[in-house]
């Protein structure tokens, strides 16, 4: 395969290729996982476009990750696909791949290796999972522990404003409690605007903001939302510990 000889020259002969099976070549070069194992990068003719070359890993990256961390939930699988797609790659079951023209091999070998490094990085992957789980964990707690207050998800209190959405509505005797989950600045600002609009509409409600990290918001956004919202929980642990007691008091 002439493209392999060209690629070897572009790497100043610092890489080599082993033919694992007929027409399937493993790249041997300075591309390593965090633990020192060499990345599994293969080159073969694209089965979809014979005029292109496929860079792939034949599922070895996810297998390497699974030694310490399983992709065992839809959420984790979604994060995996997000990482892969953001770098312009594809996944077919466990196989991460991309089909490219031969003249782009040098560029894409680097891009492919960077993606593999990110997928296989335990520290990065765990951080992304924790960040993405905020809303999932919030919803799970509400539905399991606060069902007495008849929580309704994705409510629009002002019928003419489909841009003002409440994450959860709780029904107390003569008023509603609107809850907003906040994991970033954009959601904090939308929550502030929503509560102010509900006040202008003279809705009988109390508002709750549950933050992923209140201290991580810019100072001005902390001030604005504190002025607009009735009750704030600075993080999910604070909400889990005190939410039931707070709603009990509000229901009296």
Can you tag this structure with a few keywords?
252 residues; Yope Regulator, Chain: A; six-stranded antiparallel beta sheet; Trna Endonuclease, Chain: A, domain 1; five-stranded mixed beta sheet; 8 helices; single chain; 11 strands; 2 domains; elongated; alpha+beta
Write structural notes for this entry.
With 252 residues, this protein is α+β, with helices and mostly antiparallel strands. It folds into two domains: 2-120, Yope Regulator, Chain: A (2-Layer Sandwich); 133-251, Trna Endonuclease, Chain: A, domain 1, CATH 3.40.1350. 44% of the residues lie in helices and 22% in strands. It has helices at 2-10, 60-66, 74-86, 105-120, 122-145, 185-200, 219-228, 236-251; strands spanning 16-21, 24-28, 42-45, 53-56, 90-92, 95-100, 152-155, 166-171, 176-182, 205-211, 231-233. The strands form two sheets. A six-stranded antiparallel sheet has the order 1-2-3-4-6-5. The longest helix is centred in the middle third of the chain and has 24 residues, at 122-145.
Query: What would you call the structural class?
Result: alpha+beta
Summarize the biggest pleated sheet: 6 strands, antiparallel
The CATH architecture of the largest domain would be 2-Layer Sandwich
Strand content: 15-25%
Radius of gyration: 25 Å
What is the domain tally? 2
Provide the spatial order of strands within the biggest beta sheet. Answer: 1-2-3-4-6-5
Number of E-state strands: 11
**Uncertain runs with pLDDT below 50, 5 residues or more?**
none
Shape: elongated
Helix content: 40-55%
CATH class of the largest domain: Alpha Beta
């Amino acid at each position: 395969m002439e493209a392999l000889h060209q690629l070897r020259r572009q790497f100043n002969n610092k890489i080599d290729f082993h033919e694992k099976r007929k027409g399937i070549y493993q790249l041997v070069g300075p591309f390593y996982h965090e633990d020192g194992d060499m990345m599994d990068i293969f080159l073969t003719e694209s089965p979809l476009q014979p005029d292109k070359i496929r860079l792939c890993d034949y599922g070895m990256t996810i297998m390497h990750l699974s030694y310490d961390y399983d992709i065992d939930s839809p959420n984790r699988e979604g994060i995996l696909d997000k990482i892969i797609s953001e770098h312009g790659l594809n996944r077919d079951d466990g196989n991460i791949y991309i089909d490219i023209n031969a003249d782009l091999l040098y560029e894409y070998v680097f891009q492919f290796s960077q993606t593999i490094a990110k997928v296989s990085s335990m520290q990065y992957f765990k951080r992304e999972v924790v960040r993405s789980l905020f809303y999932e964990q919030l919803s799970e707690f509400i539905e399991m522990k606060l069902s007495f207050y008849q929580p309704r998800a994705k409510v629009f209190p002002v019928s003419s404003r489909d841009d003002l959405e409440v994450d959860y509505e709780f029904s107390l005797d003569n008023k509603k409690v609107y809850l907003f989950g906040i994991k970033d600045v954009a959601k904090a600002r939308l929550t502030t605007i929503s509560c102010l609009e509900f006040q202008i509409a003279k809705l009988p409600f109390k508002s709750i903001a549950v933050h992923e990290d209140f201290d991580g918001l810019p100072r001005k956004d902390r001030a604005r939302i504190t002025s607009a919202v009735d009750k704030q929980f600075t993080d999910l642990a604070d909400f889990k510990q005190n939410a039931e007691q707070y709603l009990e008091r509000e229901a009296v």
